Amino acid sequence: MAKAIQEDAARLNRELYARTGVSASLAVVRVGANPASVRYADQIRRLFNTAGVGFRLVDLPTETDDRQLVATLTSLNAEADVSGILLQLPLPPAVSPDLAAAAIDPGKDVDGIATTNAGRLYLGRGRFFAPATPAGGIAILERAGIVMAGRQAVVVGRSAIVGRPLALLLLARNATVTVCHSHTRDLARLTRQADILAVAVGRPSTITVDMVAPGATVLDFGINVFDGRVVGDVDYLGVVETAGAITPVPGGTGPMTNAMLLQNTVQAALWQAE
Ligand code: NDP
């Protein structure tokens, strides 16, 4: 699925270039050298190179302050050959993520981190970019032919980057949505009601087989290192026989996130070309 999305995005970008002489391009802004951010940027660079979409890394030192970061983002907003901007999180404690996100032009905010895009997603109005990870989850459901309308969806986790936007995207597709979090009582009772169970907690084995209804579709967003292996939030081997469909970790929602970032970057360039 991720490969099909990548190929579509690459084709749309070639067509855009043939028509206008403009190619989509992403600027990744990183402050400091968080190892996970470095790995993610490398993955994105490889993917964008393969797709023939521009990629630029703006690598700022850890000592960068709010004023310098905002100035960098503002100057990228003004560059015609930058169609999308990805600000890598987490930022060092000295800089404010809210201030930085607010500095990104909403039309270039391809990971949907700023309030304009989040607000449009919330209202379900106008053009917006949804964060790549939940958008990838929805793309998996759509491509697998899983019906969302009228189904009971349970989202475990309510972060601004995964759980919360995913709940809104499911609601926009007419699912009946329950959002669970660390204060939820009797999580298993709720997860067992799910036709679609989406989990983004960041803890291995948060979901075990007794918490999943037979035939349910399970989206596992967790990326955890456990016993030297990368595992999700769902006990995959326990759940795989019971679930109707389940995303593996690694190789499930992760590659879809990268593909959606590529798609959003090309979409930004198409909108800018209009
Ligand atoms: P956060 O830590 O920001 O959020 C975790 C959420 O889980 C919170 O809403 C928290 O509740 C909730 N939670 C914690 N413990 C429990 C519990 N026992 N029962 C129910 N809910 C609980 O994490 P992220 O959303 O950023 O990431 C979640 C996972 O997804 C991580 O493993 C991360 O690595 C992965 N991830 C994967 C991506 C991908 O491409 N597939 C991209 C981004 C993240 P509360 O709000 O009350 O604290």
Structural write-up:
It is a single chain. With 274 residues, the chain is α/β, with parallel strands linked by helices. The chain has helices at 2-20, 35-51, 66-78, 97-103, 115-123, 132-143, 163-172, 187-191, 236-239, 253-273, and strands spanning 25-31, 54-60, 84-87, 152-156, 176-180, 196-199, 217-220, 224-226, 229-231, 245-246. The strands form 3 sheets. It has a 5-stranded parallel beta sheet. Helix 1 runs parallel beside helix 10 (253-273), helix 6 (132-143) packs across helix 7 (163-172) and helix 6 (132-143) packs across helix 10. The longest helix has 21 residues, at 253-273. 45% of the residues are buried. The chain binds NADPH dihydro-nicotinamide-adenine-dinucleotide phosphate. Residues 133, 156-159, 161-163, 180-184, 187, 200-203, 221-224, 253-254, 257 line the site of NADPH dihydro-nicotinamide-adenine-dinucleotide phosphate.
Q: Report the portion of residues in β strands.
A: 15-25%
Give the termini separation: 28 Å
Give a short account of the largest sheet: 5 strands, parallel
Helix percentage range: 40-55%
Question: Helix count, per DSSP?
Answer: 10
> So what's the overall shape?
globular
Write the element-wise H/E pattern from the N-terminal end onward: HEHEHEHHHEHEHEEEEHEH
Structure ligands: NADPH dihydro-nicotinamide-adenine-dinucleotide phosphate
- Helix/strand-derived category reads alpha/beta
Overall pLDDT: 97
- Stretches where pLDDT is under 50 for at least 5 consecutive residues are none
Number of strand segments? 10
Tell me the strand order in the biggest sheet.
5-4-6-7-10
Radius of gyration: 19 Å
